[in-house]
Write a structure and sequence with these properties.
The protein is an alpha+beta fold. The protein folds into two domains: about 1-200, Jelly Rolls, CATH 2.60.120; about 205-310, Orthogonal Bundle (Arc Repressor Mutant, subunit A), CATH 1.10.10. About 40% of the residues lie in helices and about 20% in strands. It has helices at about 10-15, 115-125, 145-165, 175-190, 205-220, 225-235, 240-250, 255-270, 280-285, 290-300, 305-310; strands spanning about 1-5, 20-25, 35-40, 45-50, 55-60, 65-70, 80, 85, 90-95, 100-105, 110-115, 140-145, 195-200. The strands form two sheets. It has an eight-stranded antiparallel beta sheet. Strand 7 (about 80) and strand 8 form a beta hairpin.
């Protein structure tokens, strides 16, 4: 399956329907889009995504799967939490905690999801350790031998090209299924044998303050919060929060909270199933001055709220994988 979304909110909604719990938020100004290719079988899901704007990605991956993230281009720049993502690394995504990443324009990456029961069976048959036996690796960064990562990327690109080439014939499906369920997971399992694993770094004071602030913002999505309130609830000073938000998102706390509420409005406009007025949705998220709201909305997303409401939804070209 492949396609292009006219906004990261539409892409986020589509991925969530596939089992990934996502909340993507555009951080810079201008029309944003997302492209993707997905190949899947009963045991494996491979996704290749490209964002053309700076995007905050809050993700909880597929339950019951081992999930990994790998940058697909040297030009991809992103941070996961308080550390930069490395081109030479495989990120072992925590199933329960998920992750937060902030990518710069042009961010492109693969995510891999392997069903745990199938991985355990394959590891046993090939004589590899089962990743489930080492719970500390999840949420950490794995640095495999360079040639192993080259082989993994080549296999993912082969699958991605296969899946995006158009309709697959019945004769091609078994070969693609083997790539997804045998070849690719075997390469990932083999990479564990010689990899250096960097455990998760404990949160420092500024990171803890940022987490408390984000938790409070997420718990009050419909309120026009003040920075002063955020300082009280996060038990931190204004200077600490300013530095924390600018380091992570390159915006101030005030700007971040405005973006968050505008993001909620945009998602509500795109997903609404009943006829609601724009001002009703805007009011729901603390916007009361409609001209100012429309101006802020257009500055960020490159279109008026009415244009979002009337936009043509994404149409996909589908390739079916066994």
């Amino acid at each position: 399956m492949q396609g292009r979304f006219e906004s990261v909110e539409e892409f986020s909604h589509s991925i969530s329907q596939g089992g990934w719990l996502t909340n993507f938020q555009q951080l810079d100004c201008g029309r944003g889009s997302a492209e993707f290719v997905i190949a899947m079988s009963d045991a494996t899901v491979l996704q290749h995504v490209i964002f053309d704007r700076s995007v905050r990605q809050v993700v909880r991956p597929l339950s019951g799967h081992h999930n990994f993230g790998i940058l697909s281009s040297p030009s991809s720049v992103a941070n996961m939490g308080n550390r930069p993502l490395k081109l030479a690394a495989i990120n072992c995504l925590h199933e329960e905690d998920g992750f937060e990443a902030v990518g710069k324009p042009g961010f492109t990456a693969y995510t891999l999801s392997f069903k745990k029961s199938r991985v355990a069976e394959l590891a046993h048959n090939l004589g590899y350790a089962n990743p489930d036996d080492d719970r500390d690796i999840w949420g950490s960064e794995m640095l495999p031998a360079p040639e192993q990562l080259v082989a993994i990327r080549a296999k993912m690109q082969q699958i991605s090209d296969f899946a995006s080439s158009g309709g697959l014939t019945p004769e091609q499906l078994p070969g693609l299924q083997d790539l997804l369920e045998l070849d690719l997971p075997a390469l990932v399992l083999h990479s564990f044998t010689q990899a250096n694993i960097t455990k998760r770094i404990p949160l420092r004071n500024r990171a803890r303050a940022l987490k408390r602030a984000l938790d409070y913002i997420d718990a009050h999505p419909r309120e026009a919060l003040t920075v002063e309130t955020l300082c009280i609830e996060s038990a931190s000073s204004l200077s600490t929060l300013e530095r924390a938000f600018r380091e992570r998102y390159a915006v101030s706390p005030k700007r971040f909270m405005l973006l968050q509420r505008l993001h909620h409005v945009r998602r509500a406009l795109l997903q609404q199933t009943e006829s609601r007025k724009i001002f009703e949705i805007a009011n729901e998220y603390g916007f009361w001055h409609m001209s100012k709201f429309a101006m802020d909305y257009k500055k960020i997303f490159g279109q008026l709220p009415s244009q979002t409401l009337n936009s043509i939804r994404f149409v996909s070209n589908r390739s079916y994988v066994a």
